[in-house]
Amino acid sequence: MAIATVNPATGETLKTFDALNAGEIEDRLVRADQAFQEHRTTTFARRAGLLHTAADLLEADLDGIARTMTTEMGKPLAQARAEAAKCVKAMRWYADHAEELLADEQPDPADVSDSGAIRAVVRYRPIGTVLAVMPWNFPLWQVVRFAAPALMAGNTGLLKHASNVPQTALYLEELFRRAGYPEGCFQTLLVGAAAIEEILRDPRIAAATLTGSEPAGRSVAAIAGDEVKKTVLELGGSDPYLVLPSADLDKAARVAVTARVQNNGQSCIAAKRFIVHQDVHDAFCERFTARMAALTVGDPMDEHTDIGPLASEQGRSDLEELVDDAVHQGARALCGGRRPPEHRAGWFYEPTVLTGITPSMRIHREETFGPVATLYRVADLDEAIALANDTPFGLGSNAWTRDAGEQARLARDMQAGGVFFNGMTASHPGLPFGGAKRSGYGRELSGHGIREFCNITTLWYGPEE
Fold this sequence. Notes:
This is NADP-dependent succinic semialdehyde dehydrogenase. By secondary structure, the chain is an alpha/beta fold.
């Protein structure tokens, strides 16, 4: 895939970039390793000052970088601004909390006295340069939620971003440089996917983190495993959205629309499968479908647009194949199900609600990356849970119920990295984020995320005789 900015609202190629050659990659690896030797010894106060400066600079750049993201991958401009603002929040959160999250732990001497120690300390130390392989759908947030904790832990970072968001990737490198980070502390690698293996195998790379597709995750995990290097993977999702009889139906339907079409429906944690109890199915369906059909599809730079184009022509084709397969096998589109005829240029797709889904349909098992919702009717809580878990993925999940017993049951039995009750799945700097099953492993964000790329070191002190 060419490294280029292609406006998905028009299909026009705006700017192309040459991939780095072997010598240029080597230069960046050298700089990253040298920067680590300096950065790892800095104080938390110094690191926090740098990250706060980066946050201030990003906040000042909010509108400009939002327009860059919208131009490169098509999300509505208001959502791009919100993404950038969320990055500012996360930077400040880690700048303010990293020192306490990585503070030394001292076991009670009585608990380890039989080891012969008079004192023991557990210390979190940086591990080196981390390679980040990141996707286009949240081109700023996906990177910052790795970079902020990694840099605060004393690591350095190399970013291999998606090839269709090169200007956003270069902006990030420049942002950290302007903030005063040592040269090489955070660098962008404009390279294709074929270059990842050699970079990851380089001994100067200590670990890798990837957000993306399941095949990409398998590939990176296999290479890293062969090299015995730590990885964190956040892969696909087919998140369920359960609506049970005690739910506030108006609120559940309103939030359901946002949960499905945020980021033009291109989010791993977007709600995709709407599983509704038969007692409230028809009422929810009516509300949900009406709201989906009323959404405005159009120019993502227009402040009144709800849904912009999909990020790539291939992405739209993949989505169409899933919808067409389902319809040909008997599913019914309650709204949408086609390219909007008024938008012939660009990669637009109408907000769609499908019902009558059966297990033989591809859409029942595969992730839909676009504004397409599948609607299911279930008889009871047992059937709802079974259907929710009937997926190879396990990233997030939503459940709308005010019944405490149902909430307890769902908290115990849902196979996902998160269960959100009466609200939409979202990520927050203070809460761990990650999945189960084929949605990946490891955690980002919170204290769990910053410790993923630390050498958890035991310091043992014997008696001085």
